[in-house]
Task: inverse folding
């Protein structure tokens, strides 16, 4: 599983790309630090809106600055955020930004029972937050008309489907997905005008086993066309 893949090189055709590397998060303390719901919300805000101060995050998320400062320090301790060292033009304020990277979790078979509990909590909060944000932004989007509107109102593609794969093929499929994301990653200086941060999420899982032969049930399969 990947968490915010983030190669910092420009896309193919602009400059040479460095070899892609990933980091596995197998330390239980690191996973517990990431699973904290408030920290996940803060990371999501930094990813969507860019660098922020603890006061900015507190106002945006309904927290107090003491809490956001503490959680930022903990996230920085484990390498998920870092202090922005470039001049911001805002005096002595401390600005923080999310650290990009292809961070992966150990497969279920290598997780201890305690790690599985932490991963279940992390995934539960992360997926719920993603779905809530998707629905919220989709409802807020105003379709573009001759009288105006937002051209990005149609920027909510999603797909539901099914394919039959072996386990090695599924792993290869996932790596191709990560490679596609990194192909479109580029430094801020190479980003064209009008570009926006686009959140991408990937979820795949094996369908339930077929019903036992002794209790046959009708097999109905439906899937939507990829959009």
Result:
């Amino acid at each position: 599983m990947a968490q915010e893949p983030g190669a910092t090189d420009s896309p193919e055709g602009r400059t040479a790309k460095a070899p892609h590397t990933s980091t596995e998060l197998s330390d239980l303390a690191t996973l517990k630090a990431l699973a904290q719901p408030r920290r996940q919300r803060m990371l999501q805000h930094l990813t969507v809106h860019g660098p922020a101060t603890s006061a900015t995050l507190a106002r945006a998320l309904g927290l107090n600055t003491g809490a956001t400062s503490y959680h930022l320090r903990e996230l920085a301790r484990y390498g998920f955020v870092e202090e922005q060292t470039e001049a911001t033009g805002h005096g002595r304020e401390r600005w923080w930004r999310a650290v990009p990277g292809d961070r992966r979790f150990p497969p279920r078979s290598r997780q201890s029972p305690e790690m599985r509990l932490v991963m279940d909590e992390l995934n539960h909060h992360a997926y719920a937050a993603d779905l809530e944000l998707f629905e919220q932004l989709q409802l807020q989007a105003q379709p573009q008309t001759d009288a105006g509107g937002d051209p990005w109102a149609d920027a909510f593609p999603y797909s539901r489907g099914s394919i039959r794969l072996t386990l090695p093929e599924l792993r290869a499929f996932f790596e191709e997905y990560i490679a596609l994301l990194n192909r479109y990653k580029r430094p801020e200086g190479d980003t064209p005008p009008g570009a926006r941060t686009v959140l991408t999420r990937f979820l795949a899982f094996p369908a339930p086993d077929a019903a036992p032969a002794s209790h046959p049930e009708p097999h109905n399969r439906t899937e939507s066309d990829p959009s």
Remarks:
- The chain has six helices and five strands.
